[in-house]
Write a structure and sequence with these properties.
Number of domains: 1
Largest sheet: 7 strands, mixed
Shape: globular
Mean pLDDT: 93
Strand content: over 45%
Oligomer: single chain
CATH superfamily: Nucleoside Triphosphate Pyrophosphohydrolase
Number of strands: 7
Order of helices and strands: EEEEHEEEH
Low-confidence stretches: none
Radius of gyration: 13 Å
């Protein structure tokens, strides 16, 4: 049985690039795939609170300029996710790999390199 979950996805943008991560092989959802970094929304937490917490935990930065631009449902073997995509164009700190998988900046016109269809679709909507 799948559980219901909400997730915030961070689409960090600079110039014509976006940030992607190679998900660790031990992850239960999309292991080893090139995807966008994100975080589950915890009980009692707003989407914005989850975005700020997730960016700190995953990438060691605090988002300062961001907006919600896309929402889509993602059904996996383990979860029925409501995914909320935030474009992030301003942040404090230097992005670094903390909990996120291996990081890479990818050109927007090369979104086909992202291996999850839901993330490719979101980038298309930017």
């Amino acid at each position: 049985m799948t559980r219901k979950a909400s997730c915030v996805i961070f689409v960090f943008l600079k110039e014509e690039l976006f940030l992607a991560e190679r998900r660790p092989e031990h992850e239960s959802i999309d292991p080893g795939k090139l995807a966008l970094p994100g975080e589950h929304v915890e009980h009692g937490e707003s989407l914005e609170q989850a975005l700020i917490r997730g960016c700190r935990e995953e990438l060691d930065v605090e988002p300062t300029k961001y907006w919600l631009f896309f929402q889509q449902r993602y059904l996996t073997e383990r979860e029925d996710q409501d995914c909320y995509y935030y474009a992030v164009t301003g942040w404090k700190g230097t992005i670094r790999q903390v909990e996120a998988g291996e990081l890479a900046w990818i050109r927007l016109d090369e979104r086909h390199l992202v291996e999850t269809g839901i993330d490719r679709n979101a980038i298309f909507h930017l």
